[in-house]
Structures are given as C-alpha cells and as structure tokens.
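Obj.: predict assembly geometry.
Materials: sequence records (below).
Method: joint structure prediction, all chains together.
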Amino acid sequence: MSASARGIGGRQRLPPRWLVLTGVIPFALVLLPVGYVALSAVEAGPSGILSDLIRPYTLNLLVNTLVLSVSVTICAGVIATAAAWCTERCDLPGRRWWRLATALPLAIPAYVSSFAWSSFGPAFQEMGGAILILTFYSVPLIYLPVCAALRSLDPNFEDVARSLGHGRWRSFRRVVLPQLAPALGGGALLVASHMLAEFGALSFLRVETFTTAIFDQYTAEFNNRAAALLSGVLLLICLPVAFTEAALRSRRRFARISRGSARRITPIPLGRLAPLVLLGFVALTVLGFGVPLATLGFWVWRGHSTGQGIGDLGKAMLTSVGYALPGALLTTLLAVPLVAATTYFRGRFARLSDRLPYLVHGLPGIVVALAAVAFTIRFTPAIYGSSLVVLLVYAVLFLPLAQSSVRASAELVPGEFTDVARSLGKRPLAAFVLATLPNLAPGIGAAFALVGLQVMRELTATLLLAPAGVVTLATEFWSYTSDRAYGAAAPFAAALVLISGVPVYLFTVRTLGVAEEL
Amino acid sequence: MLIIDRRTLLRGGAALGGTALFAGLAPRIGRAADTLTLYNGQHRATTEALVAAFTKATGVHVTVRNAESPELASQIVEEGARSPADVFFSEQSPPIASLQEKGLLGPVDAATLKAVPAKFCANDATWIGATARTRVITYNKKMVAPADMPKSIMDFATPALKGRFGYVKQDGFQEQIMAIVHIKGRDAALAWLKGVKQYGRAYNGNRIASNAVENGEIAMALSNNYYWYSLAKEVGADKLKSALYSFPDSDPGNIYNVSAAGMLKSSKNQAAAQRFLAFMVSPPGQEAMIRTTAEYPVLPGLTSPFNLPPLSDFSAPVTPADMGSASEAYALEREAGLI
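Observations (raw structure tokens):
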C-alpha cells in the first residue's frame, strides 16, 4: 500500500466489516434515548415547542446550566493541569503519594460530598458552592489523563524550545500545552457533559439547571412531554461541546512507533514555592476527600438510626459489585470498536458514532431510563425487568467514560501494527486482536475501573430497571437519606467509598502506567 | 505481596465479568402465583413494615420496587398495559391520580372502600388513602417566636416575610396550591405563587428545607408534618431547635394530604392486589405503618404513637380527591415561572 493511499496519521479509508458490525451495536443503543426524546418532542407538536421554551424560566435554566458547566470545567481544568505539572515535573516532596491523593475524590460520589458540604450552611449552597464542590469532585477526571499525557511527552521538544530562548512558561504554553490538548480536552468534555446531567448533588445545593428542571417536570405533572423538550435542549447544548473536543484532536498524530530514547526528566526545583504548593495539595485532599469522609463519620457517631439495616450491608455490597463488574465489562467491550473505528479509520459514520455517546452523557438518568422502559416493554418484553436491561442502560450512560480511557491508549498505538499483522496473512479481526488490542490494555483497564466506579453509584436507572427488590449500596444510601436516617445511611456510603477505592487505585495505576512508577 | 501481571488481571476480570453478565442474561425466575409486585413511592421503612405484616398475615410474598413516586408513575405510564406492577403505593395522591386520569387503575373492592372515610379516597373508587399528614410550617425557635408566626398561608406572598422562609416544589406543594385555588380562587393562587417565588427561598426537598430550618439557615419552611418527627427521631426531640406550627382551621394553609394506593387495571394478580389494599386499611396494616412514621391513620379509632395532635381538629375544606393530579397547580406554577 502506498503512502498516498492513506489519510493523515496512517488511517485507511474504510474500516473492515467486523468493526462496522460491532460498532453498530453501541451506536444503535445510544440512538434509543435520542429517538425517545425526538419522538416525545414531535408528539408535543411544533406549536407547543416555542411557547414552552421561550420563557424567562427556561432562559434562567440555560444561564445556570452554562455557568455551572463552563465554570466547573475551567476551574477543574486549571487545578488539574497545575497539579499534574507539580506531581510529574517538579521536585514535590512525596509526589507518589500526592498522585494517589489527588485521584482520591473520585471515590466519593458527588451526592455524598454535596450533602456533606451543604450541611455547613448557605455559603456552600447555590451557584458559588456548587462550582466549588463540583470542581473538587471533577479534578481527578482531568488530572489523571493529563498526568498520563505529561509522562508520554517527549521532553526533547521542551529542550528544543528552551534552547531557542523560550522561558519556562512560554515553552509550556507553546510546546507542552498543545500536546496536552487531547488529554485535557477529553477530560474536560467528560466533566462538562457530566455537569449537564448532574442531579443528586445539585438538589442539595439548590441550583436549578435543565436536569433539575426535568426532574421537576416529572414531579409536578409526570409530564414526559415538557421533560422531553428540555432534554432536547440539553442535547443541543452538548452538541458543540462534543464536536469541539473532536476538532481539538483532529489532524494531529500522537502515535510514535518508538518511544525514543528513554531519559529521566530532571525535576524542576520548586524552591521557595514548595511550602505553598504542598499547602495547595493538602487543601485539595482535605476539601475533596477529607471533609465528606469526616461527615460520614459524624453521622455514624451522632445518628440514632446507626446500625439500622446494617445486616443488608454485605448483600448490598455484593449486588453493587455484581452489577459493577458486568456493567463495566459490557461498556468497555462496546467502547473498543467505537474508538478503533475513529482512531484508525475515517468517515462520517465513524465520527458520528464516536460523538453520539457524549451527547447522551449530558442527558439525565431518568430520561435514559424511561426511554429504556418504553423500548424494552414494547419490543423485547421478555427481558424487561431483568438485569440485562439495566446493564445495557449503564452502557448507554457511561460509554463516553470508557471511550475516553481507551482512546488515550489507542492514540499512542500506530495503526500500522494491524497492517503489519495483515501483511503477515492474518484476517482483519485477528490482526486487530493480536497486534493492536494488547497495546490498548492500559486504556481498557482504566475504562473498566472508571465505568465500574460510576455503575456502583448509579441510582435512577438501577431503581427503575433492575429486578424489583434488588438493593445496592447506592439505593440503600438513597432510601435511608430519604427517611433522614443518616446514621443508617452512612455505613452504606462509607462502603461505597471504600469499595470505590479499588477501581480508583486501579484507574490511577492504569492511567499513569505501572504500579512502581506511582 | 501479590503481584498480578496485566494478562492475568485482564483474564481474571473478563472471566469474573463474563460470568456475571451471563447471570444477568439468565431468564427471570417465573413469578409464583402468590407473589405480588408493588411499586412503592412511599418512604421505604413504612412500606417494609406494612409488607412484613401483610406477608405474615396472608403468606403472600411481595416484591417491591422502590423509587420516587413521580418517577414510578412515569414508568407505569410508559409500561402501559404490560406493566408488571400489581399495586402502586404513592407517597402523595397526585401521582396516583394521574394514573387514574389515564385510565390505568382498576376499581378498589367495595368493602375496602367502606372501611376508609370518603374524604381520604378517590371519587371513582380507583385509589384509597393509606396514611394522612398535615401541611405545617417548620420554624426555628431561636429565629421566630410562635406569637409572631404568620396567621395565614397567604401572608407568605407578602414582602414582610422576604428571605425568611423556604418552600419546596414537591411533596405536598401541589396540594397546597390546589387548596388555595379551591378556597380563594385561581387568581389568588397565582398571585400567591408569584409572591412565594419572589420572597421565599426554593429548596429541593422537604428534608433539605427542614434541615435548613433546624440549622438556622432560614427561619421557616412550608412542609409536611412528618419530616419534623423523623428528624426528632434521628437526633432526639429535646435537642431540636425547630418546631411545628399550624394555621387556624379556616385557613387554606391548614390542609391534609394522603399517601395513596391503587390496583393497576392490567394486574394479572387482582385477587392478591385487593387483599393487599384491604390489609393496608385494616387495623394491623394501619398500625404497622403509623408505628414507623409520624403520619395519621386513615382508619378511625386508631392513634399514632408519635403524640400527634388529633386529626379531627382539622376541618380542611379540600380533600385529596378534589386536588386530583393537580394539573391546574402545574399550569399555575408554569404561569408563575416556578417550573
């Protein structure tokens, strides 16, 4: 094959048949909630749409949704990049531990940390509080990919920039930052779309966004029509976010056949700044992890209901893990062909199927869950009420998390690997499995851990779609806090945080390379 | 230390996950004829106590799906005639009334209906009240004296109370709006909503609002009575900084609302569903519920162990059936820009 027949970055024009077939499955799944929203909006009729949407109330929601999403993404992006730079490139004392500490808030569900913080009073509520609390929560999602990207950068580029007379800051901005853009953009996209869909945390913080308004619509009138219209707006907001991130990455090639000469990077001395930076890391850990955890301890100590339902703890833990493992496996399996198709091949369909899950990631869980109810009960009633449905919904909800992790690995693996295997006579699927897939293992491992983490704390879809009577740590926490039995709720939240520690650790290790380096 | 290489980890993970995935694929175990499926939006502890007493008394096993009532109502609407639910137990009457309006509920047995005063039930016999509660004001004792409490719910729409009270758009708020519509008229209700929006602080749940009052974040909150009692149960009544206040009898703020249950028309297990509803309003069923929550029994002659003021003191002119699915409240909330 001549070089001219390839696209930039060695992409062939058409993906092989196996890839198309396996890529269609997640695409179709993710299309369902979009179709559900579209159909409900059509049912509402064109006349209703405008009068429904153009109201001061909707405008207010739009402003809140955008302010929250943009502010959290920017704040978390800046903090995460600075933290990654300090732990990867500077002589920060105890940096191995700070890496893990910075990733730890990932183990705490947003609704737990929001509840903890909002109990300190109105100062930590409303928009200001929400931005603060959700920023701490979101930092690890950007920090980890940026760390990984910083490690894989060739330091020689920086040396060249410095030798050309650029200062440290200028060479960071001109040389390092552009190379970090895919990792930064990928993390930021996850955070931004997650903020669009966040509900549990915001209900404690008294911030109204499109998502909380969608829940309000269901509460006030069980109004699937008005809710669908607001969901449609959410999809539209997500659209530019998802495609901007893709544009950030397009027309770049990051893969290197060889890693170049291995060279230890001399850490930049922090000097007089060291105590200040250390203080920053302590604050980040205390605010993002320490405070919510201490609040859980306080509940156990103070609450009269402590101990109630504790007999179900073991069962709930097993069920949570029992859903998290297959949910993560299924989601990761579905994500691999999507990523492979867009990373190694080009085409409109591949691009669309890669972007669509990010749009749906911005939809509230209730909309996706009701779409699944409407679809399965009509077309596949046999599986309605079985665990399979809830696993498929997890895949729809969390595909982007898996995609981002797998993509981080895929972009470092040249497509030529598969070509070489093909030239040795392997069929397309076998060539991919033998030559490329093993090299994606760190990304697949990270995806598995991250999705498992999110599945364990998922609530709405689990409540509506898991077989009746199923209890998980998240559902127990929810039902005890609804009854205000905080003492009873706390052990379930603590168990959730504790078990989450395992995937957080795995995710950190997988994202940042082998354990010894951590 | 155990060292796991990448391949072992992946293999182990895949095997573990694969097994679990197949467990998920396995067909559901066929439902026994004497098993009832209950969609429950009422507080879980209350329903668990009821179900345990029911199963003990009848031997009928009950499978419960717990979620928020409005979400369950939306789910039943999407499920339509194929709904696996036999009975829906709603925390409030409007969600179940919305199913009534869509024709998804079957009639409740006449004997069951007769046991419960008509003021707690649907006009067309499709649902029955299970427990009743009152609308109240929770106030912080340090921030406002009982003598200075507003004399009417209508006072909350005035600048005098600006920034002093919280309100919650769920769980009883629709019923409150409907009561004002019935007693004072639609225009008054709209003006009231606009005032509440302007002068009050919105909270996203009665629990959160009553916590805010307890913590001194805000002086008062519009709420249901049992939230205060459940807080008292958790931290001890003597330690509470908040207390309850009710409006005089004639005021539209002095109303009650109910948790309610009904049988799905599509139920394949109607005999057991009717038995459950009958048990719910029988003395043992009522007692199981009122022991766990500070709500009133709908069955006359029983008293709550929570030291509640007697319900007969309240002569509210509006019943849950009058409120229906509260679609007028929804329209008013939209007009006032609340939702």
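Conclusions so far: Confidence is low (pLDDT under 50) at residues 1-11, 514-518 of chain A.
To do: check interface contacts against the pulldown list.
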